[in-house]
Automatic annotation (TrEMBL), chain A:
Protein name, as recorded: RNA polymerase sigma factor
Residue ranges of domain RNA polymerase sigma factor 70 region 4 type in the record: 120-170
InterPro entries: RNA_pol_sigma-70-like, RNA_pol_sigma-70_dom, RNA_pol_sigma70_r2, RNA_pol_sigma70_r4_t2, RNA_pol_sigma_r2, RNA_pol_sigma_r3/r4-like, WH-like_DNA-bd_sf
Phylogenetic placement of the source organism: Bacteria, Bacillati, Actinomycetota, Actinomycetes, Micromonosporales
Keywords for this protein: Sigma factor, Transcription, Transcription regulation
Family: Belongs to the sigma-70 factor family. ECF subfamily.
One Pfam family linked to the record: Sigma70_r4_2
GO molecular function: DNA binding; sigma factor activity
Domain RNA polymerase sigma-70 region, residue spans: 23-90
SUPFAM superfamilies: Sigma2 domain of RNA polymerase sigma factors (SSF88946), Sigma3 and sigma4 domains of RNA polymerase sigma factors (SSF88659)
One GO BP annotation of this record: DNA-templated transcription initiation
UniProtKB/TrEMBL annotation, chain B:
Keyword Membrane: yes
Region Disordered, annotated ranges: 215-236
Domain Anti-sigma K factor RskA C-terminal: 100-222
Superkingdom in the source lineage: Bacteria
Name recorded for this polypeptide: Anti-sigma K factor RskA C-terminal domain-containing protein
Organism: Actinoplanes cyaneus
Matches recorded under InterPro entries: RskA_C
Transmembrane feature ranges: 95-116
Keyword Transmembrane helix annotated: yes
Alphabetical keyword list: Membrane, Transmembrane, Transmembrane helix
Skewed-composition ranges (Polar residues): 225-236
One term under GO cellular component: plasma membrane
Length: 192, 236
């Protein structure tokens, strides 16, 4: 799998196949974020399209030193989706509809939290298989370390060290790309 | 002050082990370790929410086609060229790009007039209603180019030179520069340097004013490949 560094280089050189690689890798996450924010499939597909066109036009601004390709794309998508929500709100105002605003369906789910989840999910998929497996059992099945050792047949010490390393990797990635801490990667795409 | 062992903090954050008294005391008084602990708990919390995100469905293929079309209809190549040349680490001054673009546009305008004179001189009976000089995009050899004339009888006469070889074919489009993705397909270029293509009746040339020549693969996909070679804006 080509790295973000290599992809960035190919994008800068104007290689559209590199954009296709980024799209195949991250298009699903971009669409998911847009759909969660906009609550509407057609708008979400539009924002996905606009995001990748903006990524192409602004490809010089992607810096792999500051964040991953996924973090960068999600930063663009988030702004495009928020722009759309704002302009929809403006249209609503213009129409001067007097009716009460319906409460947003997912008011508790912030864009930041969705971005965080997508970034952590992506990192989880990148972990070495055993690290990933032990963390899945801990996160999703709520198993204790001894239970994980029993299920996987790994020695308890190995389970613990997989969990420790896996957690350290997730945390590092979250700090680089996560939205809650004020995504640094988002800075480089602010103008898009 | 001796901080808690980072590995130990991870186990505590996962609530896997109970804090010992000395550890509780330390956490109560050490903001660094508390911050560390909170961050790890956040990560664990997020981690437990990602199960549904593992195999997200890919966007439908028509979204990708729209991306490709959006890129094809991106701003004029002149701006792209200045972007590439001026790619420096410091912020570009705000006026430089418009000035370069304006200068380039002036050159294009002059070159366009010359080309059209040559053209119309050869076919004096043809009435030209709009014209465009076609310039190569950044990825295309600089020697490539062409001219396009809209004739009063509703046809587009196009002449191209030094196009890169293709394993597919070259197709001519009219793009709406204000609405990425909106375009009209005019037809493909024969092997000859010159071709006359009919414009669909009723085409709004004020809107679809960018002539675009693309390289299309034989993939049975009628949409724009996104691989534009030449482009120019029609002027009257």
């Amino acid at each position: 799998m080509s790295s973000d560094d290599e992809l960035a280089g190919r994008l800068r050189a104007g290689d559209q196949a590199a954009l296709r690689v980024a799209y195949e890798r991250h298009g699903a996450a971009v669409l998911y974020l847009a759909q969660r924010l906009l609550g509407n499939r057609a708008d979400a597909e539009d924002v996905t399209q606009v995001t990748f066109v903006a990524a192409w036009n602004g490809r010089d601004s992607f810096d792999p030193q500051r964040g991953t390709m996924l973090g960068w794309l999600l930063g663009i998508a988030r702004r495009k989706a928020v722009d759309r929500l704002r302009s929809a709100a403006r249209d609503e105002k213009k129409a001067e509809t007097v009716r009460a605003q319906p409460a947003p369906v997912q008011a508790v789910e912030t864009p930041e939290r969705i971005v965080d989840r997508l970034v952590v999910a992506d990192e989880l998929d990148r972990l070495p298989a055993e690290q990933r497996r032990t963390l899945e059992l801990a996160f999703f099945d709520d198993l204790t370390h001894p239970q994980i050792a029993a299920v996987t047949g790994l020695p308890l010490g190995t389970v613990k060290s997989h969990i420790r390393r896996g957690m350290a990797n997730l945390r590092r990635r979250w700090e680089v790309d996560g939205a809650a801490l004020g995504s640094r990667s988002a800075d480089s795409s602010r103008a898009l | 002050m001796q901080h808690l062992d980072p590995d130990r903090l991870i186990l505590l954050a996962l609530s896997e082990e109970l804090e010992e008294l000395t550890e509780s005391d330390h956490l109560a008084t050490c903001p660094d370790c508390r911050h560390e602990m909170r961050a790890l708990r956040d990560v664990a919390g997020i981690g437990s929410e990602v199960q549904d995100l593992r195999d997200l469905p890919a966007p439908p293929e028509h979204v990708w086609h729209a991306v490709v079309e959006g890129i094809a209809a991106a701003p004029a190549p002149v701006a792209d060229l200045t972007e590439h040349r001026a790619r420096v680490r410091r912020p570009r001054s705000r006026w430089l790009v418009p000035v370069l673009a304006a200068a380039a546009a002036a050159i294009v305008a002059v070159a366009g007039t010359v080309a059209v004179d040559r053209f119309t001189g050869r076919a004096p009976d043809e009435q030209v209603t709009a014209r465009a000089t076609l310039n190569p995009l950044a990825t295309v050899p600089a020697s490539a180019g062409g001219d396009a004339l809209v004739l009063a009888d509703g046809q587009l006469r196009i002449d191209v030179r030094n196009l890169p070889l293709t394993t597919g074919f070259h197709e001519v489009w009219l793009l709406d520069p204000d609405q990425p993705g909106k375009m009209v397909a005019l037809g493909n270029l024969p092997g000859t340097p010159e071709a006359v293509l009919p414009l669909p009746p009723g085409t709004d040339l004020n809107r679809y004013r960018v002539v675009d020549v693309s390289d299309e693969p034989h993939d049975g996909d009628a949409a724009h490949s996104g691989n534009s070679l030449l482009r120019g804006t029609l002027t009257r």
